[in-house]
Amino acid sequence: MLPVQPRTMVEQAAEAIVAAAARGIFLPGDRLVEAEIARDLGISRVPVREALRLLESQGIVSSTPYKGMRLMQVTNAGVAALMRVRLALEVLAVREALAQPGGAERFLGLRDAAAGFSAVVGAPDPALRVAAEEQFHGELCAASGNPPLLALWQSLSRQLAVVWGLGQGINDAPAADREHHALLQALEAGDEAQAVALLSVHIQRNEGQDFEAVTAARRHRGG
Q1: Which domains does the chain have, with CATH numbers?
Q2: pTM for the complete prediction?
Q3: Second label for 100, Cα 20 to 30 Å away, from 13, 34, 67, 156?
Q4: pLDDT above 90: residue 221
Q5: Residue 176 CB coordination number (10 Å)
Q6: Is the Cβ–Cβ distance between 183 and 143 less than 8 Å?
């Protein structure tokens, strides 16, 4: 992990921990040692402690008496449940975004986010793709014009980032890129049925993956 700057250190530390999970530095169930993280980030333990508390409130970290903080467990059933909630939110986002006044300009932020993902499809750092995926779907929810919907999605986004990080070795990034652009085109054309169908396929791709096996394999080979 790279050192962070003094400004908003708690948030930056939280982002660094999630990025480390996306890179496989931390695996589900791994203990997160405050002192070690602070040393690696080049900051004091206080913002790291607060960052871990923040992540605990978002479901990314769990605290067990006498065992400390650990990264969330990832089970296939848990991922399926998370994706069902996510799909419901994003389908609603599609419908409310298309109900907003205006034309294709409603989706300029989404177009920029799609381009951002395209730019990192071949990047060696999986955390870049995870961040770009999060940005794309966050922009989709923002386009709904529904602040509670966006807030709910954001409350799930870091859990999704951990799952996406695990899936980087088995996900087809070029296919995801094509799906982003196809979804964008359907939205710009005002085709709700097509947009919902494309979104459903894109999200449900995760349900066919064995995240428990991926975690076990990574742990066996040391990350």
Answers
A1: 9-71 (1.10.10.10), 76-209 (1.20.120.530)
A2: 0.88
A3: 156
A4: no
A5: 19
A6: no
